[in-house]
Specification:
This protein has helices at 8-29, 33-52, 132-135, and strands spanning 2-3, 54-55, 66-68, 73-83, 89-98, 105-107, 112-120, 138-144, 150-157, 164-166, 173-174, 179-183, 187-193, 198-199, 206-207, 213-216. By secondary structure, it is of the alpha+beta class. An 8-stranded antiparallel β-sheet has the order 11-7-8-9-13-5-4-15.
């Protein structure tokens, strides 16, 4: 278990702010229950931030027949929808909601080539809300497999998230299990799959990024 590189700047900022607040308070008030309470609140905040940016080491067994979960979280959508950004037809959508307690790193769910990658500024509705898929800040990534099938992975910011980070670029070859990106502080990932894709999860299931099998061709 390590700390994700996206967390370094945030952790340094939290630490500097904490020291800037706590040291003067300890000097002015001394060791009192008030100053100790403030120090305790800072420590809890720092430990939560540290835990949020954890980056587990996970070994992926690549399987071209399986679509792996791109994130840790809970399955909140399994439905056929009209995808109007890229495919402009009906697709099967699987949505993974990440709470503040989940690992927020994202992984590539299938091997292939990046055909499309576009960032969209937007609102910050609760990520669990269905409309967040097309109203919130988001990045859409289309991956084409060797069998010419295509899937769209959409990183969606949530109510507290203010940054969606995506590493692959259009035209890049990617492998199942590589890093896709990171979303800070509560978010969601949608996968838009061919209609005949067979889901391997059900509503409410908890999944692990890079480990759990979401669907099969």
């Amino acid at each position: 278990m390590t700390i994700h590189r996206e967390g370094y700047s945030t952790l340094i900022l939290v630490l500097v702010l904490g020291l800037a607040i706590n040291i003067p308070i300890l000097i002015l008030l001394g060791i009192t229950w008030v100053s100790l309470l403030i120090v305790f609140i800072f420590l809890i905040s720092f430990l939560f931030t540290l835990r949020f940016f954890r980056y587990p080491t996970r070994i992926t067994k690549s399987n071209p027949e399986i679509i792996l979960s791109p994130a840790d979280g809970k399955i909140v959508t399994l439905s056929e929808v009209f995808e109007d950004e890229y495919f402009k037809d009906k697709r099967f959508r699987i949505s993974v909601f990440m709470s503040g307690f989940n690992v927020h790193a994202n992984w590539i769910p299938v091997s292939g080539s990046i055909q499309y990658c576009k960032y969209h500024p937007g609102r910050n509705l609760l990520a669990i809300h269905p409309k967040s898929s097309f109203l919130n800040e988001r990045t859409s990534i289309v991956i084409q497999l060797e069998n010419n099938q295509k899937i769209l992975v959409r990183q969606i910011a949530g109510i507290f998230a203010r940054r969606v980070v995506t590493y692959p670029k259009s035209g890049q070859i990617v492998q199942q299990g590589e890093e896709l990106g990171f979303i800070k502080f509560g978010s969601r990932l949608d996968l838009f799959l061919p209609p005949n894709t067979k889901p391997l999860v059900k509503m409410g299931d908890k999944v692990k990024g890079n480990l759990s099998e979401l669907a099969a061709w």
